[in-house]
Amino acid sequence: MPKISLHQLTFGFASNTDLLFDHVDLDLDTRWKLGLVGRNGRGKTTLFNLLQGHYPYQGHITSTTPYTYFPATVPDPTLPAMTVLQAIADVADWQVVRELRQLQLDPQRLEQPFAALSGGEQTKALLAILFADETALPLIDEPTNHLDLASRQQVAAYLKRQRRGFIVVSHDRHFLNQVTDHTLAIERRQIRLYQGNFAVYEDQKQRQDAFEAQQDAKLKKEADRLKQVAVDRTNWAQVTESRKHGNPHQKNSGWQAAGASALPAKMMKRAKNLERRRDRELQATEGLRQNIEHVAALSLTPMTTHYQPLIHVADFALWYGDRQLFQPVSFDLNAGDRLALVGPNGCGKSSFIHYLQGTFTGQHTGSATIHQQLTLSVTRQLTTENGSLTAFAAAHHLNYRELLNTLKKLGLPRDVFTTPIDQMSLGQQKKVELAQSLMTPANLFIWDEPLNYLDVFNQDQLATLLTQTQPTLLLVEHDQDFIAAVATKVVRLRP
Fold first, then answer.
1. What's the mean pLDDT when you consider all of the chain?
2. 334 and 224 co-located in one domain
3. Are 427 and 451 in contact (CB under 8 A)?
4. Would the pLDDT of 62 be above 80?
5. Pfam families attached here (predicted)?
6. Domain annotation covers residue 177
7. Where are the alpha helices (DSSP H) in 290-348?
């Protein structure tokens, strides 16, 4: 059986006191379509790097097959896309064309510079070269980021048709449910393997967490009872001892004196035994609590406004030269609306946001006006920030301790607080970007693909926040479940 074996795998970064992997023993069949899941920072991408031999580690990793990795490093994006792909892997053109057609990408598009391809086209091209190499096991890291709904479905259908195994990291529930048959979950203190897709993992995880929480509460209740019994017996023994010595003129018979002397000692011994039993009960709860995910509630500060509408759009379209990005649209965004702007990649959703902010460099027809007196809070697709969190807080007029607290609620590890923002992972940078918006009081929140790189716990966390606080929101997102959960209006941009 072709497999990957991990034996006593131990690894942690020098900057982190906690190990990511601690004496892990695991066998994986390379024929599986394996989903690798877990919270941001748990080590999913690190595991990919360990498999490829990029980091030193303790223990052993053995494999019967080499690996290919998505997204591959593009050596020179100004070169024709086919030239770029040939530099990444030594495969024949016909093999690449075969995969491109399955991904519904016109091979003639590869005559363009790689940089000229859309984000979705780049993803498909890099996936094509991954599977064109039939000798290696594909390691696929976050393929759905920046893909529109149609492209996600195309990529999901492509992976579902594969007869080969692969390992894929994604935070898109539906995507994983469509393409995987096994799930490897990196939890807080252990790694668990599930036979089934993400839905199977999620169901079993919820059942296990509920059982452990119930057992935890039961053991704690028993520990509290034992503690009270021990306290009562200790107090009784002390009172008995003080009474025995309290009246020096009282005379006792020999058996009474012996009994009175022995009784408090026995009571004290029983109390000590009860305390030790209570400590064992409490220790038992530690093993139960360690893998339950605790997700803190986030806060947001919407500011009221009497302006109506906040945004007015009439027969509006954006252009780059003679290329029209989308067909004319008309709509109003009023106070209390949570409006989702949807459409395929490249149709101008982010460009529309840039226009509202006055940073769009093309042309427009029709009108789109945003009230000038509004206070905005914006989350970008990708942050361009660098430097320390301390400098970031000062530049954005944020309370530094509150910033750290918000980042902690979003799941950013404490040991990352001192890492320069530009050296953080993309998911961690996204959390910094989101934290800034969450902490900025505003009449209107504008969020451009806020779920990119965020795990499902963060996604649920944000959905709960928006439905509870009900801010006025302009949202660009491709996750249909999230849109259905939070949006009160949907406007579709059509190319």
1. 85
2. no
3. no
4. yes
5. ABC_tran (PF00005)
6. yes
7. none
284, 219 Cβ separation under 8 angstroms: yes
CATH number, domain at 159?
A: 3.40.50.300
Distance (Å, rounded) from C-alpha 447 to C-alpha 437?
9
Q: Quote the CA–CA distance of 219 and 216 in Å, as a whole number.
A: 5
CA 140 centroid distance within chain? 16
Do residue 229 and residue 362 come from a single domain? no
Nearest to residue 450, comparing CAs of 474, 469, 471? 474
The residue segments making up the domain with residue 42 are: 3-204
Buried (b) or exposed (e) across 342-377, using 16+ Cβ within 10 A?
bbbbbbbbbbbbebbeeebeeeeeeebebeeeeebb
Domain boundary among 259, 290, 321: 290
In a 10 Å sphere around its CB, with 0-12 CB exposed, 13-18 middle and 19+ buried, how is residue 118 labelled? middle
**346 torsion bin: left (phi>0), alpha (psi -120 to 50), beta (else):** left
Mean pLDDT of 200-208: 87
> Which of 167, 188, 204 is the last residue before a domain boundary?
204
446, β-bridge pairs: 378, 474
Residue 450: is the preceding peptide bond cis (ω within 30°)?
no
Residue length of the chain: 495
What was the pLDDT predicted at 432? Answer: 93
Question: How do 182-186 and 33-38 pair as beta strands?
Answer: parallel
User: Is 299 within the bounds of a domain?
Assistant: no
Do 480 and 371 lie in a common domain? yes
Does the residue 300 lie in any domain? Answer: no
Do residues 245 and 180 both lie within one domain? no
Find tokens 């001192």 and name the residue: 418
Same domain, 128 and 239: no
The three-state secondary structure class of 333 is strand
Do residue 343 and residue 475 come from a single domain?
A: yes
Write the burial class of residue 299 (CB in 10 Å: 0-12 exposed, 13-18 middle, 19+ buried).
middle
Domain tally, the chain: 3
List strands edge to edge, sheet with 3-11: 21-29, 3-11, 58-63
Question: What pLDDT is recorded for position 348?
Answer: 87
> Which residues are 60's β-sheet partners?
7
Residues 323 and 259 in one domain: no
Which pLDDT belongs to residue 37? 93
Using omega within 30 degrees of 0 as the cis cutoff, is the peptide bond preceding 309 cis?
Answer: yes
Residue 182 lies inside a defined structural domain of this protein: yes
Q: Provide the pLDDT confidence category of residue 154 given band limits of 50, 70 and 90.
A: very high
What is the tens place of the pLDDT at every residue in 373-410? 889 999 988 778 888 999 999 999 999 999 999 999 99
Residue 195 and residue 72 share a domain: yes
Which secondary structure element, helix H or strand E, spans residue 448, and what is its range?
Answer: strand 444-448
Average pLDDT of 358-375?
90
pLDDT tens, residue by residue, 90-145 = 888 899 999 999 999 999 988 989 988 888 889 999 999 999 988 899 999 999 88
